[in-house]
Amino acid sequence: MTEAMIGSIISALSTGLGAIPILFMTKVTHRLRDILLAYAAGIMTSASMYSLIPEALSQSNLIVLSIGIMAGSCVLLILERYIPHIDLENPESRPFNIEGKAFLIIAAITMHNLPEGLSVGVSYASSDETLGNLIALSIGLQNAPEGFLVALFLVNQNIGRFKALGIATLTGAVEIITAFIGYSLSSVVDGLVPYGLAFAAGAMMFIVYKELIPESHGDGNQRVATISFLLGLITMITLTELF
After folding, report:
1. In 10 A of CB 129, how many CB atoms?
2. Do 194 and 67 touch, CB atoms closer than 8 A?
3. Which terms are listed as keywords in the entry (predicted)?
């Protein structure tokens, strides 16, 4: 439990660490944004395909894996349907005025972080002692650019830099709670771990395919984003082999 809590805290606080540069800058190019998003996509793809899915299969079978993956994808699909998607770079796409309803935007971003914390918690409950750290690291690497973009968005809405940093950090902190829930349920309920691992893989791959890849390829930076994706993939495979 202690290791799981430490891992989830580090993973969650990576959102705040990624937002720290906002104290020194207020603009980011589309090219850099796309590179960061694509790199995060590569990290999450590798974590799903080389860690979560193989571990789920080793503890169960193809039926359990398929159910878990589809469940994770469906949960994210429901969140996408009922929680407004916020394009941090496109003011025209915002469904409401930031000055009047800023807390709704923060709530939407926070809700999208819930499955990530669940992924970390379930991974630590697995019999593979190294899996939890790997998934926590992959989620943390994905959270860093997300935290920066959230803080940048808030600063551009005339919110103070330190306050923006604090809010960005809090949007990731919710992962600590869901990590605890995922770990507790998987530790208590027999046979739940492989379902949870597959669920986490499905949720992560939904985020990659629905959000990260399309957003990283939408501004004419497809080539550099593709290279960044591959570098993220190689980074996580290397960490898997080392640890």
Report:
1. 10
2. no
3. Cell membrane, Membrane, Transmembrane, Transmembrane helix, Zinc
Structure confidence by residue, pLDDT tens digits, 44-93: 888 788 878 888 898 889 999 999 999 988 888 887 777 655 555 554 44
Distances from the Cα of 91 to the Cα of 86, 96, 98, 167, angstroms: 9, 10, 10, 19
Q: Tell the residue number behind the tokens 């669920």, with chain if given.
A: 199
Write the secondary structure of the chain as one string of H (helix), E (strand) and C (coil). Answer: CHHHHHHHHHHHHHHHHHHHHHHCCCCCCHHHHHHHHHHHHHHHHHHHHHHHHHHHHHHCCHHHHHHHHHHHHHHHHHHHHHCCCCCCCCHHHCCCCHHHHHHHHHHHHHHHHHHHHHHHHHHHCCCCCCHHHHHHHHHHHHHHHHHHHHHHHHHCCCCCHHHHHHHHHHHHHHHHHHHHHHHHHHHHCCCHHHHHHHHHHHHHHHHHHHHHHHHHCCCCCHHHHHHHHHHHHHHHHHHHHHC
Q: How far apart are the first and last CA of the chain?
A: 20
Nearest to 126 by CA among 201, 222, 217: 201
